[in-house]
Design a protein that fits this description.
The protein is of the alpha+beta class and about 375 residues long. The protein is built from 13 helices and 14 strands. It has two domains: about 180 residues, no CATH class; about 190 residues, no CATH class. The longest helix is centred in the last third of the chain and has 43 residues. About 0% of the residues have low confidence.
Length: about 375
């Protein structure tokens, strides 16, 4: 009789215990697979939400003459008449090799104007990109939809006593206040936001830019590579990654990964103990059988292989069921935790192979001591135990 036949027959004879052995290991693998899948969904959800927090790359002219605090960084050269950044530079950013990692590019021109005897900072933006970049903005009124409409920061609205729907004059040009920004606690409260082309005309700087903000996807964000490639495209500009924003994003994602690994290790340890306990009990219950095998000439290696084959079969079955159940549970619990739609179940071949391999490995490793213990049984001692 072949060794694998002996192993299969042993498993068939102990159906009840084998069922609970497979169940214990299946629960462990199911938990790990579900946790990995849910963590991936959480990482994706967090990455998408963190990407809404704004720019993580700032492009400014190469100038040390003046500085302006914007976005937590010192922006140089924004008041220099000879602009080194132009509208033509914006399309160049989209030509870098890793352009698929760029979410939003928002060019800006900053200047100062006098309105009703008060010095006010004016920023020209492309509202479509700016609103995509700053999704946390809350506007009382409506978004600017034409070149003769502006958006007022909260502090500017208070200083000028303006509200949505009123008009004001900027360098002799009448514009309508389409909306007022709700207080943000940032420099945006002290700015008037106007259409970029309108501000360029008003400041008499056609095509000129003061800075460009770039938001890169944080989930697969080769931030240093993006900075390097943009720098090559724009050698006349200084390209800087806003480290605080990026580090916050990556730190949040890293916490979830560590949490996943920690829980997985605990669950796998429990699964290993279940296999070890069951296999050890099985060996003690089969002293007679093992003694007979040894008495009729079975070598120690044969006994070890029989027990390992049993553990391997159990591990393979548990791995398959664990993967299927884990993916099913993740599709139910994942959307509840993240708010994302589960959609179709995505079959991950690598995760499936990994789950089956891990289950089999745990089964074999947990059976190592019981197998060695069984192989060392003295045939006469085992038979005397009848």
């Amino acid at each position: 009789m072949r060794l694998k036949d002996i192993s299969i027959n042993n498993l068939k004879r102990r159906k009840g215990k084998v069922f609970f052995l497979i169940l214990g290991l299946t629960i462990g693998i199911t938990t790990v697979v579900a946790l990995i899948s849910i963590t991936r969904m959480m990482n994706e959800d967090i990455a998408n939400k963190l990407d809404e927090f704004g720019a993580n790359i700032l492009i400014i002219p190469r100038s040390d003459d003046l500085s302006l605090s914007y976005g937590g960084m010192s922006v140089g050269g924004v008041s220099v008449d000879a602009q080194t950044l132009m509208d033509l530079d914006v399309p160049k950013i989209g030509r870098i090799e890793v352009s698929e990692n760029i979410s939003t590019v928002s060019p800006k021109l900053i200047g100062t104007v006098e309105i009703e005897g008060k010095k006010i900072s004016l920023m020209g933006v492309r509202f479509e990109e700016e609103l995509r970049l700053k999704k946390w903005w809350k506007i009382h009124g409506s978004e600017p939809r034409s070149g003769d409409e502006v958006l007022l920061g909260n502090e500017v609205a208070v200083r000028l006593f303006k509200s949505a729907g009123e008009t004001l004059s900027i360098n002799g040009k009448k514009v309508r206040v389409s909306g007022i920004l709700e207080e943000t606690g940032s420099q945006d409260d002290f700015l008037i936001f106007g259409d970029l082309a309108f501000v360029q005309e008003t400041m008499k700087k056609p095509g000129g830019l003061s800075l460009i903000e770039v938001s890169a996807y944080c989930n697969t964000c080769p931030i240093e590579e993006i900075v390097s490639q943009i720098s090559k495209q724009l050698p006349h500009a200084k390209v800087t990654a806003i480290k605080q924003t990026l580090e916050t994003k990556m730190e949040a994602l890293d916490h979830f990964k560590k949490f996943s690994v920690g829980i997985s290790m605990v669950v796998l340890l429990i699964g290993s103990l279940i296999v070890f306990t069951n296999m050890m009990a099985s060996v003690n219950e089969r002293k007679r059988e093992i003694g007979i095998f040894r008495a009729i000439g079975f070598r120690k290696s044969h006994i070890v292989r029989i027990i390992f084959l049993e553990a391997l079969i159990v591990g393979l079955i548990a791995g398959i069921f664990g993967y299927i159940l884990g993916m099913g549970i993740s599709q139910v619990i994942g959307p509840m935790i993240t708010g994302m739609k589960g959609g179709k179940i995505f079959i991950d071949p690598l995760l499936a192979i990994g789950a089956i391999f891990l289950s089999s490995l745990i089964g074999i490793l947990s059976s190592a001591y019981p197998a060695i213990h069984a192989s060392k049984m003295d045939p006469t001692t085992a038979l005397r135990a009848l």
